């Protein structure tokens, strides 16, 4: 439990990229940045998170938590201090290339740090709890990642209301300290020997009764050394195969892999896993050649791209809705609406990660269905959130779309690690998760840049209009020269694109569940057939 609490604290300090919307409009106003430039800065943070994930994953799998946690502490501290320095110095009429480059580098550093901290926390938790509780516990750790924005934004707003410089200082110090604490208390707790067994007539019993099978037809079953030999007989002393699989006597974890180069009646062992792993052991080049990986990658790219687009721009969305037809624009009131969206998004992101873990374990243990079916629920929530956002015309109703999006986004990243374990195994979880985490770079870049260009195009149209309310800037002190005044029309065309993307992800999610269930049923039938032989 101490490891779990420590992992949650580390995760809580790793998700600060989600707080970007709490200060990005003010950053843009002070430095005279366009919406496209603000999205590029925000995407630098996302790039840092997802591009470094495979690297940190491999480091955690091979070297442990120490290096990632030290790196996270350093990058978070200097990254946010760098952003604070640029913000405090301000800019002239236009931001210089040097200032923009420093902002991008500093935001990238915070993203790299978030990836390092999350990899350390998630890997430790996944390997310290049994399969029956893994969805719930990893969901709790990932929920801290989602709650990060609310946690730090609330601290800054209570202690330093309206002070963006103070918020950045809180982020610099408040995220670095938990990483140092994690060096002391985030430690992997070894699990006791597995007690579940394989039976001939009963098939798979205990918590291993259902085991998802990846496209490589690899299945890993946990059994004691005295497993029923009627089903898994080793090769005889005369070299004749008396079973389709070979099980070594000295291992409690056996990876059963069918060799496609031989017939059904003469399969041989292709690889044997030493140690304890709750699933197949697919990684590296083999992972990239597995169709299941590309299916998971595509679903995650579409849904995470939608989520990142909304998260990075929810502050601008609330300002556009608040500014429409409002002659009494108040910066402080606008900032409150903006902060409310960020806090709501963060809380629901947290809740989504916790709930999806419980739902995933219920689906697996009680309903005897693949956990991947949870993707259908997540995709449906994304669709509903985007449809609702399209129809919001008043900032007072935007929170409803934010709630749905937050739950969906949290659910997506709460279920992904568990699916990776089910499909590809636990031994290389962090590395495999890192490769899957590259997918938001594709969707996030595409959708976020599309959104920023859309906002800038409408703001430009406003500038050229003779009836534009740009006079309000002087009367009401609007925060940004690039402000759009058309409300939902500033961005609604971008939401139509994300609705289509999420609907496609929903179809793929249903196909993934059906495909996984069919493969599992087929493998069970083959095991029974082999036993009867």
Automatic annotation (TrEMBL):
Pfam families: MFS_1
Residues of the signal peptide: 1-21
Principal localisation: membrane
DNA damage found in the keyword field: no
Gene Ontology terms, MF aspect: transmembrane transporter activity
PANTHER family named in the record: NODULIN-LIKE DOMAIN-CONTAINING PROTEIN, UNCHARACTERIZED NODULIN-LIKE PROTEIN
Membrane topology: Multi-pass membrane protein
Gene Ontology cellular-component terms listed: fungal-type vacuole membrane
Subcellular location: Membrane
Residue ranges crossing the lipid bilayer per the database entry: 37-55, 67-83, 95-119, 140-160, 166-186, 293-311, 339-360, 372-391, 403-426, 433-451, 495-514
UniProt keyword annotations, A-Z: Membrane, Signal, Transmembrane, Transmembrane helix
InterPro entries: MFS (IPR011701), MFS_trans_sf (IPR036259)
Protein name: MFS general substrate transporter
